[in-house]
């Protein structure tokens, strides 16, 4: 069911500072900031040969990552995103196996314009999993 790792996400308190560190200290190519108000975050993507790193900061009230940053004020690894061929089939299989799909269970459109879902971190060893439709 799982394809490539699409991205590993790091929640940060200051996206501009994190962008500068990846660009200037780590010499990486970093995309322009992408506000995603429907997701309560602003993101940038660090381009790598084999995957991406998503850097994200809260956007607006009620961001889903606000509590995470309160617990981890310096930032931290937030989620891993796997690609799947068929996100609805993956969802149905996961729900049938007892996993919790976050939100209302329906895919939303993510930063790449593809359907995405999130699985509860408590069901997968303390790791928030995002699935993105190939
Ligand atoms: C889709 C656009 C973009 C893209 O790639 O295209 C993105 O990736 S946007 C990413 C931001 N959006 C989301 O993360 C949506 C899914 N996340 C959520 O719904 C929440 O963050 C949730 C429910 C995972 C956690 O919310 P919150 O922290 O407010 O709830 P709790 O405090 O009740 O947390 C419950 C429990 O889970 C632990 N937790 C929370 N976040 C994480 C995490 N990222 N990794 C691991 N564990 C996490 C938290 O510490 C609590 O544990 P407990 O032991 O009960 O204290
Ligand atoms: Co993501």
From TrEMBL:
Keyword Protein transport: no
Domain of life, per lineage: Bacteria
Keyword terms, alphabetized: Cobalt, Isomerase, Metal-binding
Family in the record: Belongs to the methylmalonyl-CoA epimerase family.
One Pfam family here: Glyoxalase_4
InterPro entries from the UniProt entry: Glyas_Bleomycin-R_OHBP_Dase, MeMalonyl-CoA_epimerase, MMCE/EMCE_epimerase, VOC_core
One biological process term in Gene Ontology: L-methylmalonyl-CoA metabolic process
Gene that this sequence comes from: mce
Domain VOC residues, every copy: 4-134
Name of the protein in its database record: methylmalonyl-CoA epimerase
Catalysed reactions, semicolon-separated: (R)-methylmalonyl-CoA = (S)-methylmalonyl-CoA
